[in-house]
Specification:
mainly alpha
């Protein structure tokens, strides 16, 4: 049952946060502290994603499950099994913090995030066990699922080289969406009021 739920959530994972986005924009009231903390969280999250995608490639963008021919266990995947989802957590939570809606709203989003991604991860791990068998089971025993290890837990035999330029191209939609939401939150919070007034005065 949980695996079926995970499969469904995986397909619609880009759309399930929309209600949170709507509330975030409607009640946005960013201040100095929320801008600082939210921006740091967003930058950290996107950096984690960029590094992760540079190792795993464009397969991370698919809406139906797929994987490469090799188990990726180098780079960030040697510290934690789900670096991309960890990046998602920092990026999306950063947006919520930035808007400064309510601390309970932030906590509700974090709970929602794990309620969505725990079934997704269980479903993905089930698939990876079928594809890579013992190799993936050994990887699971060494590398933590959510909390990164302080040092690499695996040594990659696949010699996968990170492709950072390809990673940036793959991440362009995520980057664009994050920038647009950032600007919209600033606008809803009144940060552009002075700029608009200055432009209007010049017309």
């Amino acid at each position: 049952m949980m695996l079926k739920i995970g499969e469904k959530l995986f397909k619609y994972r880009d759309y399930t946060p929309i209600p949170f986005v709507i509330v975030t924009l409607f009640y946005a009231a960013a201040d100095r502290n929320s801008l600082l903390i939210g921006s740091i969280s967003m930058i950290l999250g996107e950096c984690i994603r960029l590094i992760g995608v540079s190792y795993i490639g464009g397969v991370s963008r698919t809406k139906t499950y797929s994987t490469g021919q090799k188990l990726i266990n180098g780079g960030p995947f040697s510290f934690v099994r789900n670096p991309l989802y960890l990046g998602n957590l920092f990026l999306s939570t950063g947006i919520i913090i930035l808007a400064n809606v309510n601390i309970f709203f932030v906590l509700a989003f974090v709970v929602f995030f794990f309620c969505q991604y725990i079934p997704i991860v269980l479903w993905e791990e089930s698939n990876l066990k079928q594809i890579f068998g013992t190799e993936f089971e050994e990887y699971m025993q060494k590398v933590p699922r959510w909390i990164p290890a302080l040092r690499p837990k695996t040594r990659s035999d696949n010699k996968v080289s990170p492709e950072f330029l390809a990673s940036i191209r793959s991440e362009k939609n995520t980057l664009f969406a994050a920038i647009v939401l950032y600007l919209l939150i600033l606008w809803r919070s009144g940060y552009f009021d002075g700029l608009v007034s200055a432009i209007t005065a010049q017309l």
